[in-house]
Every structure is written in C-alpha cells, then in structure tokens.
C-alpha cells in the first residue's frame, strides 16, 4: 500500500472513494461533511436518508462506516464514518482507529483501490492533530486491505506538517 499526503480539499480528490468525517445522523454537518454535501449535491443526502431508514434508525454508531454514491464529486463513492469526540478523561483512540479500519473494509467491499481520508475527529470533534495523525497512520498501516493508495488530505499546512513528521 502507498500512503501519500496532500494539502488540499478532500472534495477535489480523484480517487475511488473519499471518506467523510460524518456525524451519526448522516444528515450532514459542518467541516468535511458540509463540503462533501455542498460539492457532491443532493444525491448523497438522498442515499444517506435511505440508509437511515433501512439500517440506521438510531444513527450510524461511532467507529463504523457506510458507503453512498459520491454524486457530483470526482470520486465513485463516499464512505461515511463517525469519529469519536475527543475526551480528556476517556481513551477513545480505538474508536478513532476503527474509523480508518472500517472505512478500508467498506472500500474493499466496494472494490475501491484508492481512498482519500481527512483527519477524522480533528475539527469540530476536537482531537489534537498530533495524536490523531499517529492513530490514523498506525491504523492504516496495520489494516488488512486490498486498497493500494491511501491519501491523507490535510486542509492546512499545519496539519500537513504534523502528518509529514509522523510518516
Ligand atoms: P470532525 O467532526 O470529525 O472533527 P471536521 O470536518 O470538523 O470533522 O474536521 C476534520 C478535519 O478536516 C479538520 O482537520 C478540518 O480542518 C479538516 N477539513 C475541513 N474541511 C475540509 C475539506 N474540505 N477537505 C479536507 N479537510 C477538511
């Protein structure tokens, strides 16, 4: 597996699947989630609604992942995963690692070979970038997957530099 880092916008990535740092409702939100729905168009939300109705009436649990169409994005699928909110009192790193592992498992089911990830949980969910980068890189490196290209898409220079120092 090749792991590459890019500084940029995840909605512009030409890959088989882009991963969304979704929230449990699957009904959209801010950050990556907002950008994906804005750029991808209403088809993605339509798919999310269907998934809620058929499988996730109580919401998608933290650490799990599920795929929809990518709508108008230059990707084939969006894989939605729900990161944990960072906690100072409780170690939730297994849940964060699970987001990466489960997203790659869903990618395998789809036959996706290239996957772009944002730095899950490092925005609204408050995870420190350095710790999140360590967990993300370890999880992806240890995953058993047929995905050949994993791309971490870091929104700003600071996040890119943190990932680069750990790769
Ligand atoms: P979470 O709720 O999991 O914390 P966010 O979407 O708030 O998710 O943020 C996750 C990370 O994604 C943050 O580091 C944020 O700066 C970054 N980010 C926000 N928008 C984009 C985008 N369009 N492309 C890539 N990364 C983004």
From TrEMBL:
Entry's SMART domains?
A: A1pp
Q: Which residues form the Macro domain?
A: 1-167
What is the protein name for this chain? Answer: O-acetyl-ADP-ribose deacetylase
Organism, scientific name:
Nonomuraea turkmeniaca
């Amino acid at each position: 597996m090749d792991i590459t880092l890019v500084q940029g916008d995840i909605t512009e990535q030409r890959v088989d699947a882009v991963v969304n740092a979704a929230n449990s409702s699957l009904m959209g939100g801010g950050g990556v989630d907002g950008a994906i729905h804005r750029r991808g168009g209403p088809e993605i939300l339509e798919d999310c609604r269907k998934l809620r109705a058929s499988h996730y009436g109580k919401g998608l649990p933290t650490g799990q992942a599920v795929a929809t169409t990518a709508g108008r994005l230059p990707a084939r699928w969006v894989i939605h995963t729900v990161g944990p909110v960072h906690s100072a009192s409780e170690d939730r790193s297994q849940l964060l690692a699970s987001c990466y592992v489960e997203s790659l498992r869903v990618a395998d089911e789809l036959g996706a070979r290239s996957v772009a990830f944002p730095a899950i949980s490092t925005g609204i969910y408050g995870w420190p970038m350095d710790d999140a980068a360590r967990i993300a890189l370890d999880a992806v490196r240890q995953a058993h997957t047929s995905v050949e290209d994993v791309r971490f898409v870091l929104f700003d220079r600071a996040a890119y530099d943190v990932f680069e120092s750990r790769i």
